[in-house]
Amino acid sequence: MRITGLLSTLIIMSAQAAEPFGIEDILARENCFSFTDGSSVYSFYGDGSFLMEPLGLSGRAIDGVWETEDYCVFYVTGTWTWYNGISLIDDFRRMEICITLLSEEPETLVCLWQGADTSVYSVYFTIDEVVSMETIPEL
Question: Residue 20's pLDDT is what?
Fold first, then answer.
């Protein structure tokens, strides 16, 4: 009987420890979820805005909004530019990006454009589609 009780307790503790922790939890706690690909920082904000900025002096940037249905596949719509470089005027695009969170604890990264230490999470991501748009739809 004691072994059964011990096994039941261990199973319950394992189930509690295995509760998923995801991007929506980070947004609820910190109002910003960021990760890096080594050259840029991708930041999703709780109000639905999105900002991607380069880590260095020059690089690609996106200023826009995001939406999701399941906190795995995100759709980012925004203006694409280049910091300290040549950019197209009114370069509007929609990007589909699939993100898998690998760690619940962020690392600190110095980001030149954000002006302070930035918390970034370890993720695996794929950009599944980027499409040009004539204009950004009103949201």
Answer: 52
pLDDT tens-digit map of 14-46 = 444 444 578 989 999 889 999 999 899 999 999
Q: Does the reported pTM lie above 0.85?
A: no
**DSSP letter (8 states) at residue 136:** P
C-alpha torsion 11→15→16→21, nearest 10:
160
Instruction: Look at residues 88, 90, 35, 81 and name the one whose alpha carbon lies nearest to residue 58.
Output: 81
| Pair of tokens at residue 86 | 């040549």
Q: How many CA atoms lie within 13 A of 24 on its CB side?
A: 9
How many C-beta neighbours within 10 Å does residue 61 have? Answer: 20
Asked if the model's pLDDT at residue 109 lies above 90, the reply is no
Distance CA 118, CA 124 (A): 18
Q: Which residue in 68, 95, 58, 67 sits closest to 79, CA to CA?
A: 95
Q: Which residue has the tokens 């470089």?
A: 85
Per-residue pLDDT band for 13 (boundaries 50, 70, 90) equals: very low
Residue 62's DSSP bridge partners are 52, 80
- In DSSP terms, which residues pair with 81 in a beta bridge? 61
